[in-house]
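Supplementary Text 2. Reproducibility record for the structural model of the 198-residue chain.

All settings were left at their defaults, and a single model was retained for analysis rather than an ensemble. We include the record here because the model underlies the residue-level annotations in Supplementary Table 4.
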Amino acid sequence: MKADMELRDLILEIFQEKGDVTIAGMVRELESRGVKHHRLTVTGYLHALADTGFLEVRSVPPAKLFTLKTTPKRSLYSVVGDCSRRISSSDTRAMELTVGTLEHILDRPVFLSEITEAGFSRIGHLRQLGRKEGSEAIKRLEQCGVPVREGEPLFRARELSQDDMDHLMGEALLDAMDALGERPREVKQTSLTLEQFG
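Retained model, structure tokens:
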């Protein structure tokens, strides 16, 4: 299992066991299971899981309390991220495939928070837009009415084949059909003998 999926699964497992958990409580639980992450990393990850619909968050001063949702909301980002992890040989490749496919679908570079929403906590070998290229992209997005995430870096995939994107899109379509209970059944062809026609 890949590192990001393992962390996500571990966090969700902790929520299933413990119920409501604060950020500090999650850091302690992860450490007790041999997983050490900085508090800010865990905070970002919990907020990303809340943004993608896996968790609910409420303020209980002085802390924030996170709770597992029973039916997580799936977004374009999470569907593409899940499908790319399923068909890729490595997490790095899955992230490239996710970002490249999102670029193709959205027809623009991808924000860091969108990569996080797809389930990735590291950016790996993605190409981050430089200051000039990023500000030009932001201007174009604003002109098109796309909500801009202030101060957030934009990324592009380095290389991606059309076949890889087509494979991912096929997987995403099958996921959507599964969710609706409309996935086509496998048809088995049987051979008939002349005696069966007699």
